[in-house]
Amino acid sequence: MRVLVPFDADSPKSRLAPVFDATERRDFAGAMLRDVLEAVAGAGHDPEVLATDAVDVAVPVTIDDRPLTAAVNAALEESTGDVAVLVADLPLATPAAVSRLIDPEAPVVLAPGLGGGTNGLVVRTPAFRVDFHGASIRDHRERARAAGIEPATVDSFRLAVDVDEPDDLAEVLLHGSGHAAEWLADAGVSLDVSEGRVGTSRDTTE
Amino acid sequence: MRVLVPFDADSPKSRLAPVFDATERRDFAGAMLRDVLEAVAGAGHDPEVLATDAVDVAVPVTIDDRPLTAAVNAALEESTGDVAVLVADLPLATPAAVSRLIDPEAPVVLAPGLGGGTNGLVVRTPAFRVDFHGASIRDHRERARAAGIEPATVDSFRLAVDVDEPDDLAEVLLHGSGHAAEWLADAGVSLDVSEGRVGTSRDTTE
User: A2-202 architecture in CATH?
Assistant: First the structure.
């Protein structure tokens, strides 16, 4: 299946500013993007990047500088067949997790993200369009039902963990094994195990 | 399968103190516990509560006031057959998610929680004991491998979301449909959709 991976090529991952500078954020976002593209390809599907600007990857790139929702809906509008969308900041994505999103035969399949987001979806009907603002998982469920479709939902931790905030980095170190996990280790980020949930700290002395 | 659900009957959910008083925290913890017990029973298994003190539920309760790790290991020690453990603060747990934990035939199956925890595990070997301190999912993987066992991991958002902190309440409102979601709605907690991840706010005017 055609799998669109939207990517903010201009100022990605701004909420990681407390820990990484702008160049680092761009590098790290690129590492996560590569993890997602490899997971999609590993599941036997065809990833394409839908980017706000040029990006150096080994798959087709469409440049569309409109906001995320408009760009994805334009791509859905143009597409003649089924389309999947997977966000670019899923460094825990694996081929198995991607297959669990794409295998169900439902007209609309949703992968919830932490905090109400929608990290992945499959659209097999012209009756559905996306809206990534706010509690988008709730809105996407309601939009599907308004179109007479009961959406399927994939129950995946690996697809739910999008990396937006410093606290999310711990998940990458705990469960990741790809480019993003390697990038973090190279950047001196390590687990900080004290009370409650595990965090991270960064050694910048080298 | 025998499924132990450890429960802190004394001062549960202390990290929710910014939003709920002690009585409310106990009520809410009880609602989450009931959601977990019903998910386990719905999957065709036999839940038992392992509590620090008496608790009013319709399943067998063993009282053991030792810390979590010691109490669970004592129960594993005494058990003659396979045992599963599921933490009590998983209000998104469903019978399907419980089945995904218990169905794999591996000697050790792990369900990661957010922030490095272990929210569920299945133990089919006498060679494995638990340790819930710190980044327990990492430690449990290492313990299994040290015993010559490659642990299976269940990739489940519903089992990963344990409710410890106020931010976690949004997940219950977005994805829950059981006692805990109902309790939150009755307590005046609603989604707060602004920027970034969705949070919650509480109306206490009534």
Answer: Alpha-Beta Complex (3.90)
Cα gap B191→B199, rounded to integer Å = 6
Which residues have C-beta within 8 Å of that of residue B31, sequence separation ≥ 6? B91, B178, B179, B180, B182, B183
A 10 A CB-CB count for A28 gives: 26
Say how far apart CA A178 and CA B48 lie, in whole Å: 39
Distance in angstroms (rounded) separating the CA atoms of residues A130 and A123: 10
Tens-binned pLDDT, residue by residue, of chain A (206 aa): 999 999 999 989 999 999 999 999 999 999 999 999 999 999 999 999 999 999 999 999 999 999 999 999 999 999 989 999 999 999 999 999 999 999 999 999 999 999 999 999 999 999 999 999 889 999 999 999 999 999 999 999 999 999 999 999 999 999 999 999 999 999 999 998 876 677 888 776 65
For residue B157, give the chain A residue with the closest CA: A157
Q: Which of B137, B157, B199 sits opposite A174 (nearest CB)?
A: B137
Helix, strand and coil in chain B, % to nearest 5: 40, 20, 40
Please report the number of interchain residue pairs, chain A to chain B, with beta-carbon separation below 8 angstroms.
92
Q: Domain B2-163: which topology?
A: Spore Coat Polysaccharide Biosynthesis Protein SpsA; Chain A (3.90.550)
* B95 Cβ contact partners less than 8 Å away, ≥ 6 residues apart: B39, B40, B42, B43, B44
Instruction: Say which amino acid occupies A56.
Output: D
| B71 Cα to chain A: minimum distance (Å) | 19
CB contact residues (below 8 A), chain A span 148-177, against chain B: 155-160, 164-165, 167, 170-171, 174-175
Which of these, B74, B148, B84, lies nearest to B122 by C-alpha position?
Answer: B84
For chain B, how far is it from start to end, CA to CA, in angstroms?
Answer: 44
The pTM (predicted TM-score) of the whole model is 0.95
Q: Between B115, B158, B174, which is nearest A197 by CB?
A: B115
- The string of DSSP letters for B65-76 reads -S-HHHHHHHHH
**What is the DSSP-derived secondary structure letter of residue A56?**
-
Cα separation of A133 and B35, whole Å?
A: 30
> What DSSP designation does A91 have?
T
Residue-level length of chain A? 206
Query: Cβ separation of A15 and B196 shorter than 8 Å?
Result: yes
Q: Is B77 helix (H, G, I), strand (E, B) or coil?
A: helix
ipTM rounded to 2 decimals: 0.94
Is residue A68 within 8 Å of A134, Cβ to Cβ? no
